[in-house]
Specification:
Blueprint: H1 3-12, H2 16-28, H3 35-47, H4 51-64, H5 70-82, H6 86-94, H7 101-113, H8 117-129, H9 136-140, H10 148-160, H11 167-179, H12 183-192, H13 198-210, H14 214-226, H15 233-246, H16 249-262, H17 270-280, H18 284-293, H19 299-311, H20 315-326, H21 334-347, H22 350-362, H23 369-381, H24 385-393, H25 400-412, H26 416-429, H27 436-448, H28 452-464, H29 472-484, H30 488-496, H31 500-503, H32 508-517, H33 520-531, H34 540-551, H35 555-567
Helix pairs in contact: 1-2, 1-3, 2-3, 3-4, 3-5, 4-5, 5-6, 5-7, 6-7, 7-8, 11-12, 11-13, 12-13, 13-14, 13-15, 15-16, 15-17, 17-18, 17-19, 18-19, 19-20, 19-21, 20-21, 21-22, 21-23, 23-24, 23-25, 24-25, 25-26, 25-27, 26-27, 27-28, 27-29, 28-29, 29-30, 29-32, 32-33, 32-34, 33-34, 34-35
């Protein structure tokens, strides 16, 4: 029986635990193997990683006399390093009577892996003093963890040694520049390469993707095709991610067509990315087609499709798909449950929400903060603020999203004082710095509870104390706060002081307040700002203006407002409400 062959094949196929089991069987059979046996099993330990098994193997090398072999000692250094035991790796290295270049490279990588860059540079200097000939592999360990000044030094040194034409090293230096947001440095190396591997192309494409430069990614991709470089699955992952980022449906369909011709469409995570891409382009029909055509549906694919339905206003389809998923071998993970809870929140079905909560606890998925945040949001939207409070209170360590969800829940329920108290508690107890989303909830709470002075105070402190520039949502909350309280003229003066680009977009609350307080003059001023919006697709503002004119006997003006709805091709939105009876909405 060829034990080495069996162990080697197991390691090569990724069955690392099985490789160690075969080694154990070999030892029990009275065989000790060779130095090559230890190379294979030590690699298996490093891949798992398993420090306990590694220590046993180290003792076996001592018992069998293989501890003096340079290859075995080097493999021990690498394995200890990957098992996060730098101290043992260094002991093995220090006790080596003879060291190969690979041994030196391994101990440098071990220190880099442990983020001890200065010590790695000290070892490099020692190698130079000993007159060792450095190889491209010597520098590979530095590049994933070094700072920009250190990276520049390494790049200069590599060039000085004449190693810059080594393709794997050049690709790693490009990756280093991209990691440090120096895309121009990466492009300079890329352009200087006489020969480019597919890895070179994927590195530079991924770099521009990380910068959000979709146009440059496709420019490089077209250049790649003109040079007859065949794209691999990683290239398509980058292209699909770009399409998702841009939300351009035509571009997405073109890439999908090319993907189908290339034969990568059924590989995970490609099908998941294609589905997510179409969701981002708001094309649920194409997304569902890709989903249905997938031979094997991973949990990520289910999650992408469920999230798509939830995000694009089809919560019932999301819940239906979730029920289908529960009947398959794929089991929901935390992101799946966060998505389905979001869908449940939109339907307003408390019973369905409670059933999902029960499933979460039965499957021990309740400790994830995303799930807990989604539960709070769902219960608030379904009208059960007490259940939301119960979820909130049992979370031991709350992040900003959890606090924000509960504050927003109090705001939507008109519980302004509770929202502000929680906001203060968040800052005092957890020392968490609020973000723009939290301030939107705080301003909303003040608006719904008529707390004008508090709202103005928090709006001012948002920018002065926390450096958060007001967004359209903040301005809208401020205007709504003043309008609801009857300070319509102050609301209009506030709008006039706002940046010009947001004035029209925050005028709707003033129009609503003018209708409520019968202020025709200011209502007409607010309406003029709203009607200037080129992309006004809602008929609500025109209907408000019509109702205001009608209530004040201005029939001619009311008729004009109604005609504007027809001229702009708008349709009056029908009002609707829903109620849950016996678990059915």
């Amino acid at each position: 029986m060829d034990w080495n062959l069996m162990i080697r094949n197991s390691v090569k196929q990724g069955f690392f635990t099985r490789a160690l089991q075969i080694y154990s069987s070999m030892v029990r059979s009275g065989f000790h193997g060779s130095e090559f046996t230890f190379l294979f099993v030590l690699k298996a330990c490093a891949k798992l990683p398993s420090l306990g098994d590694l220590k046993k193997l180290h003792s076996h090398t001592l018992l069998t006399g293989f501890q003096s072999h340079v290859f075995v000692q080097t493999a021990l250094i690498d394995a200890y390093s990957k098992c996060r035991c730098l101290h043992s790796a260094r002991l093995v290295f220090d006790e080596m009577p003879l060291r190969s270049l690979v041994s030196w490279n391994s101990i440098i990588s071990a220190h880099c892996r442990d983020f001890r860059i200065d010590q790695s540079f000290a070892i490099l200097s020692r190698m130079q003093l000993l007159g060792l000939e450095l190889s491209p592999t010597t520098f590979l360990g530095f590049l994933p963890v070094c700072s920009l000044p250190q990276g520049l030094s390494i790049h200069c040194y590599v060039t000085k040694l004449g190693l810059d034409d080594d393709l794997p090293l050049a690709n790693s230096i490009m990756s280093m520049y991209i990691r440090l947001s120096q895309i121009d440095g990466a492009l300079s190396i890329f352009d200087s390469l006489l020969q480019k591997s597919i890895v070179s192309w994927t590195v530079i494409l991924g770099g521009y993707l990380s910068c959000g430069d979709v146009a440059k990614v496709f420019t490089l991709f077209n250049q790649m095709r003109r040079q007859f470089v065949v794209p691999d699955s990683v290239v398509f992952v980058h292209l699909l991610s770009c399409c998702k980022l841009s939300g351009n449906l035509l571009l997405s369909m073109s890439v999908h067509s090319l993907l189908l011709r290339s034969g990568f469409d059924q590989k995970d995570p490609i099908d998941n990315l294609v589905t997510a891409m179409y969701v981002e382009c708001k094309d649920l029909v194409s997304a569902r087609r890709v989903f249905d055509d997938a031979d094997e549906k991973s949990v990520f694919l289910w999650t992408s499709m469920i999230s798509g339905y939830a995000q694009l206003g089809h919560p019932r389809e999301a819940l239906h798909l979730f029920n289908m998923m529960l009947r398959t071998a794929s089991k929901p993970n935390e992101p799946t449950l966060a998505a389905v809870l979001s869908a449940c929140a939109e339907t307003g079905s408390l019973r369905t929400g409670e059933e999902i909560e029960q499933y979460i606890f039965l499957n021990d998925l309740g400790s994830d903060l995303r799930v807990q945040t989604s539960l709070i949001h769902m219960f608030c939207k379904c009208g059960s603020i007490k259940k939301a409070q119960a979820v909130f209170e049992r979370i031991p360590r709350k992040d900003l999203a959890v606090w924000s969800a509960m504050i927003n829940g109090y705001a939507m329920h008109g519980m302004g004082k509770e929202a502000l108290n929680l906001f203060h508690q968040m800052q005092n107890e957890e020392v968490i710095k609020p973000d723009s989303v939290v301030f939107t909830s705080v301003l909303l709470a003040c608006s719904h509870s008529g707390m004008v002075e508090d709202g103005l105070k928090y709006f001012r402190s948002m920018e002065r104390e926390f450096g958060i520039e007001p967004s359209i949502e903040h301005y809208s909350c401020l205007v709504d706060l003043l309008g609801r309280a009857g300070y319509v003229e102050l609301a209009m003066r506030t709008i006039e002081k706002m940046p010009a680009q947001v004035q029209a977009r925050v005028s709707a609350p003033v129009l609503s307040a003018c209708y409520k307080h019968q202020n025709l003059e200011l209502g007409e001023m607010a309406a003029k700002k709203l009607f200037k919006l080129k992309n006004a697709k809602s008929s609500g503002n025109f209907v408000l203006m019509n109702n205001m004119y009608t209530s004040m006997g201005k029939w001619r003006e009311a008729e004009k407002a109604r005609r504007l709805i027809d001229c702009k091709g708008l349709v009056k939105e029908l009002g609707w409400s829903q109620i849950e009876i016996d678990g059915v909405v």
